[in-house]
Design a protein that fits this description.
This protein has about 250 residues and is of the alpha/beta class. About 35% of the residues lie in helices and about 10% in strands. The protein has nine helices and six strands; from the N terminus they run ααββααβαβααββαα. Strands 1-3-2-4-6-5 form a six-stranded mixed sheet, with helices on both faces. The longest helix is centred in the middle third of the chain and has 18 residues, at about 155-175. The N and C termini lie far apart (about 45 Å). The structure holds iron/sulfur cluster. The site of iron/sulfur cluster has 14 residues, from helix 5.
Length: about 250
């Protein structure tokens, strides 16, 4: 990327380019878009802070796929950029019917730059196949694009800082269904502190978005607790019934 384009993305994301301003890590994150009632996010994606001057940056909400990928690759909006090997942008069809949102990259994802690899990724693939979908037919992203150290839970400030990227991905994909995988993703996107056991098994709506949202267990959890696969299968059947897909698979 040439220097002027890099500077454009960094400016669009509120990253400092002048010595006299504090470093990004010292600045507060973008405000969360979870509504005060705890039920949902604002329908409007969070915009990057504009930089004064005639050459105003493009806000995140106006980014195309290339802009967004470049912005994530250069991002320093939270401290997680310091420990990452690679950002994990997401993968799959840009016009997918199903969009899958997981938690955050683990060690292998950090190495490969792709979400849901390793054993949990294989199980996610099997879950999708069970409802007649291949990985390359959906779009998969995480709430965070960089790995938290030691695979700890994402912090609220990190989720808030990274949220505009996920919101823009959702807006670009415009899926027919959002499938939230695991507690962290479900709580973050739905703006809830309910346990995943209560968030799964029903249909959620996000104000301003026309598609249904379903939460289910994370495949890493299912690997540890295979007795819960039956419930995950029920969630997938629920999701499939909402999109009208026949699917050609079977139970996990
Ligand atoms: S986790 Fe998100 S906000 Fe934080 S540095 Fe990575 S891309 Fe930027």
């Amino acid at each position: 990327m040439d220097e002027s384009r890099r500077r454009h993305y960094l400016q669009a994301l509120g990253v400092d380019l002048w010595q006299t301003r504090p470093p990004v890590s010292a600045r507060p994150p973008e405000p969360a878009t979870v509504a005060a009632d705890g039920g949902a996010r604002s329908p409007e994606p969070v915009a990057a802070s504009p930089v004064a001057g005639a050459d105003a940056p493009t806000p995140v909400e106006d980014f195309d796929w290339d802009d967004l990928a470049a912005a994530v690759a250069a991002c320093q909006r939270c401290g997680l950029h310091q420990g990452r090997q690679r950002t994990v942008f997401g993968c799959g069809r840009h016009d997918a019917d199903w969009m899958i949102v997981g938690e955050a990259p683990g060690a292998e994802e950090d190495r490969q730059g792709e979400p849901f690899v390793g054993a949990a990724g294989k199980l996610l693939d099997a879950m999708l196949r069970a409802v007649g979908l291949a990985r390359d037919q959906v779009f998969i992203a995480n709430t965070l694009k960089c790995r938290p150290p030691g695979n700890r839970d994402p912090r609220a400030d990190e989720l808030a800082a990274c949220r505009p990227y996920l919101e823009r991905q959702i807006a670009l994909v415009r899926p027919r269904l959002l499938l939230l995988v695991g507690r962290v993703a479900a709580q973050a996107v739905l703006g809830s502190d309910e346990p995943i056991g209560r968030l799964r098994g029903r249909v959620h709506q996000l104000p301003g978005y026309g598609f249904p949202v379903v939460a289910t267990y994370h495949p890493a959890y299912l690997l540890r607790s295979p007795e819960q696969k039956r419930r995950a299968w029920q969630d997938l059947l629920l999701a499939r019934s909402l999109t009208g897909d026949d699917g050609h698979g079977g139970p996990l």
